[in-house]
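Hello, quick one for you while I still have it in my head. No rush at all, and the record is pasted right below.
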Amino acid sequence: MVNYFNDYANLCFEKFGNRVKYWITFNNPWSVAVEGYETGEHAPGLKMRGTGAYRAAHHIIKAHAKVWHTYDTQWRAKQKGLVGISLSGDWGEPVDISNQKDIEAAERYVQFYLGWFATPIFHGDYPQVMKDFIGRKSVQQGLGTSRLPTFSPQEKSYIKGTCDFLGIGHFTTRYITQKNYPSGRSSSSYFTDRDLAELVDPRWPDPGSEWLYSVPWGFRRLLNFVKTQYGNPMIYVTENGVSEKMLCTELCDDWRIQYYKDYINEMLKDPLTSHMEMVTEIVVPTVCTLSILLSAIFLMFLLRRRN
């Protein structure tokens, strides 16, 4: 499938690359893997709990990397485009910020979600916490190897750095607390591998969908996480929005307008830092220099008039 997908992408580059300059290899591969091969909610509808999602994701990552290299070696010089991937990721906040287990559980939530795909693409391998937790539970279940597939050294080198920009689809946030699940083979799944529970704050604004609460500050924290974890990559927000709360017979978008306003304001706080740095490092010294020069010219003018 990796080679088939590469052939398809190569055809797209050939036919449309003179006009299309931004390419997303996969959109929301988390949903493809988990809902297609773990829960069976989406096509192809398989319920391979504890194995299917990891295997599907493994090949999605390898397919993405192969397509990036194909574009880089065959098309980039003449077409001048960029190739990235779009990952979904909700933010996980510790229920108790003074509880180390809750802090670690919240970190796992994000790493098992966005980090599952982003960390191999930016750093060459799966998040260490995924390797540790899935590997340990696999051993406890009597398996000879981890249910999480492994990349060879050559694959790690090949995959690392295959991202010209990162697309992010973000909608909501969860409070996260530690929860230990049994390690029996019959109970193994992507969700129990994480050893955590997801909670919501009843004070959060009522959602239009039962899963989608408006938590704008989580968006900023996710962006900061990406910035620090993956070297401040170029980011495009490829998905964000909210469903309407009520059935409308005419336009009633106040809830959606407020959601967008709050989330965009949180997003804009990050560039503000760089703008302030620019003011401090460029504008202020320039203004000071000009002020000194103008003062010197004015002083020379006064001295000449006195003479």
User: Anything to note?
Assistant: Confidence is low (pLDDT under 50) at residues 272-284.
